[in-house]
Automatic annotation (TrEMBL):
It comes from Pilimelia terevasa. Gene3D superfamilies: Tetratricopeptide repeat domain. Residues 65-101 are annotated as: Disordered. Residues 81-91 have a biased composition (Basic and acidic residues). It comes from the Bacteria. This is Uncharacterized protein.
Length: 435
């Protein structure tokens, strides 16, 4: 795992743990922790490292508490030297008996996680998805193999989610396949089975494997009902709504989203912060499904209900790998406007959304793709190509893999005047679209 990957995995954990107020680390800071330059991260950052790397305690990562002036060239540091030091959030360091250079990287927990993702093209992504498909169809289910502990499998799933949010679908698919195999080979909590099948559904839909996605989504909902957890049922229903819509059953998907959201909202867990996150995200899925069926009224009604949930939630939040808040509502409103043919409204709404403030690459890429559709509908060819290039720049694997992106490129090429197709043709060759 590279410094960047570890930083994003820790940030993803802290986002779900603490919401928008969570501290963050970047690749540079992770490198400094590896080298021992900053030796005592804040409490939450240390918790994030332990969760992602599977460490039982801070000492397993080489972190040790204490307070002592650090050495500087020519002698010991004085009070002024200590005051100039800073830790992860700009405070003074609280320790100097901390890991020496490379202790974090050399720790057993770090070594276990040191698997770099080198897959950056569509062929490797499809290879990872092939492994996922084989795991879906695997019949091995002994129920007696000890396998890893549930906490260790949960860490794998958390890492897979981080890859997915960065649009590194090949790496995410390989990890999800591993988790599915563990869930099938040993007795694991039903909630874990529900969550991993939710992520499997999203990955399979990215690759256009709708039939397999329906299988994964159905298994997810069955597992959620087995554990009788209202919030898991909401999250798994969201996955099934997505798969149903992508299979062409748009009205059924929208109806399921509305009914399940109403049920979850009527329960005590549904009125919690986590319940608002999952209910709101479910309503957004339903809104897109309604828009796909050309039911404009239902789509905007579901959007308005989601907006109300976001208002009650306040700050954006996360639960079971699902992130929801005002930003998500705005992004889905743009998507709905594009799908009901109101491209002008989509472009106008996008002016109030700053891509740099969207926390995950996958969400930013989808915004660029929605805007490419909108500009194409308005015959703004330059804008459409620009947004496609923006999506490719930040998420090349997403653009090369997804059949939906290929359809956008093909449609744009067909609508362009013959003398203005060269830019689209160049883009198509680069991402593997056959025109």
């Amino acid at each position: 795992m590279s410094c960047q990957e570890l930083a994003e995995a820790v940030n993803a954990y802290l986002w779900e743990r603490c919401g928008p107020d969570a501290p963050t680390v970047d690749a540079r800071r992770v490198g400094e922790h590896e080298r021992g330059r900053y030796r005592w991260p804040t409490v939450l950052v240390r918790e994030g490292y332990r969760a992602v790397l599977g460490a039982a305690c801070d000492a397993d990562l080489g972190f040790h508490g204490g307070r002592r002036p650090r050495r500087v060239e020519g002698g010991s540091a004085g009070a002024d030297d200590i005051a100039r030091g800073k830790d992860d959030v700009g405070r003074r360091p609280s320790s100097s008996s901390l890991p020496s250079a490379g202790v974090v990287a050399a720790s057993p927990a770090f070594r276990r996680s040191a698997v770099r993702d080198s897959a950056s093209n569509a062929d490797q992504a499809r290879s990872g998805l092939q492994a996922l498909a084989e795991a879906i169809f695997s019949t091995e289910c002994t129920g007696s193999s000890p396998g890893p502990a549930s906490s260790e499998i949960g860490i794998l799933l958390q890492t897979a989610r981080a890859h997915y949010r960065r649009c590194e679908h090949s790496a995410a698919a390989v990890l999800v396949a591993q988790v599915l195999a563990y869930v099938q080979r040993a007795l694991q909590p039903a909630r874990l089975a529900a969550e991993v099948n939710q992520l499997a559904t999203s990955l399979l839909l990215k690759a256009g494997e709708v039939s397999l996605a329906l299988v994964a989504a159905d298994r997810s909902l069955r597992a959620a009902r087995q554990c009788e957890d209202v919030l898991s049922i909401a999250a798994s229903s969201r996955a099934l709504v997505h798969a149903l819509s992508r299979s062409g059953r748009h009205r059924r998907a929208a109806g399921m989203a509305a009914r399940t959201a109403a049920y979850v909202s009527s329960t005590a867990p549904g009125r919690t912060r986590a319940g608002l996150v999952l209910t709101g995200a479910l309503l957004l899925r339903g809104a897109v499904a309604a828009a796909r069926s050309d039911d404009r009224d239902a789509a905007f009604s579901l959007l308005d209900q989601a907006a109300e949930a976001a208002h009650r939630l306040g700050e954006d939040g996360g639960e079971q790998g699902v992130v929801f808040g005002r930003t998500n509502v705005a992004l889905h409103r743009i998507s709905v406007c594009t799908r009901v043919g109101d491209a002008g409204a989509a472009v106008h709404l996008a002016q109030s959304v700053h891509p740099a403030r969207i926390p995950y690459v996958e969400r930013r890429a989808n915004l660029h793709l929605d805007l490419a559709r909108a500009h194409s509908q308005r015959e703004n060819w330059v804008g459409a190509v620009r947004e496609l290039r923006n999506a490719e720049r930040i998420a090349p694997e997403e653009v090369r893999l997804r059949p939906a992106v290929h359809r956008i490129v093909t449609d744009l090429h067909g609508r362009l005047p013959a003398g203005r197709r060269s830019a689209v043709q160049d883009f198509a060759r680069r991402v593997g679209v056959v025109l």
